[in-house]
Design brief:
Length: 241
């Protein structure tokens, strides 16, 4: 945890662990000073200050032993990590993300076929949970999808890519807030951004995306900022499908 402080018009960031260390040292020093200044060794205050000083010394030793853990915890907090995903196979989790989206959904992948198949079913009688992307579009959520151009899609994925094109041709007539663009290289990153959070991870050529690990982080995370900068840069250069 980092605390922002302002002094004489300047802003300072102070680690919580540093504040704890300073407070422990200060209380210990005051306790030792009061113990030393007390002239009566039999006074209850002498025992109180002595016991407090001894307790604080023990606390300082324990704090120093745990210092590395404090530092590691603070590093993780700076990364704004929500969850480590060992795979991306959970349909229910993505359904909930889309259902809760209010402003933006940005996707980068190889074909995005699961995204449209699972959540944009336009067939009559489709279950409600298979229509959450359509509902998001109807709420006015902006949906942007970045995919490789045809020349950079693996042969085994061509059929999936064609399905996505067909689905997009159908949906774009109804929803102006849906857009797919294509970049001229193979997919290297997977991004699923929902408002202020992101699921980010690598793309492995020989491995299905559902079986690859990912990080669920806040969009303001230092890691996510790099991924989103990548998204914005690719989006500007990409061609409309």
């Amino acid at each position: 945890m980092v605390i922002n402080m302002s002094l004489f018009g300047k802003s300072y960031k102070i680690s919580a662990s540093v504040i704890v260390a300073v407070l422990l040292l200060l209380i210990t020093a005051i306790s030792l000073l009061l113990y030393w200044l007390n002239d009566n060794p039999n006074s209850k205050w002498t025992g109180l200050f002595g016991g407090l000083a001894a307790g604080m010394i023990v606390a300082i030793i324990q704090f120093l032993m745990a210092w590395q853990d404090f530092k590691q915890t603070e590093k993780l907090k700076k990364l704004q990590l929500i969850e480590v995903l060992y795979n991306r196979a959970s349909r229910n989790q993505y359904e909930q993300f889309i259902r809760n989206a209010n402003r933006h959904i940005d996707v980068v992948g190889v074909t995005a076929v699961r995204f449209f198949n699972d959540f944009a079913d336009t067939s009559s009688g489709a279950p409600e949970n298979a229509r959450v992307l359509l509902q998001a579009l109807e709420r006015g959520v902006g949906v942007r999808v970045l995919l490789p151009a045809d020349d950079y899609i693996p042969a085994t994925k061509k059929a999936d890519a064609d399905k996505v094109k067909t689905k997009y041709s159908e949906l774009v007539k109804r929803y102006a807030n849906l857009e797919i663009r294509c970049f001229d290289h193979t997919a290297a990153h997977s991004i699923f951004r929902i408002d202020d959070t992101c699921i980010i991870g690598p793309v492995f050529p020989e491995l299905e995306s559902r079986n690859t690990p990912a990080l669920h982080v806040m969009k303001s995370s230092p890691i996510a900022l790099n991924y989103m900068d990548y998204f914005y840069s690719e989006w500007e250069k990409a061609k409309k499908l």
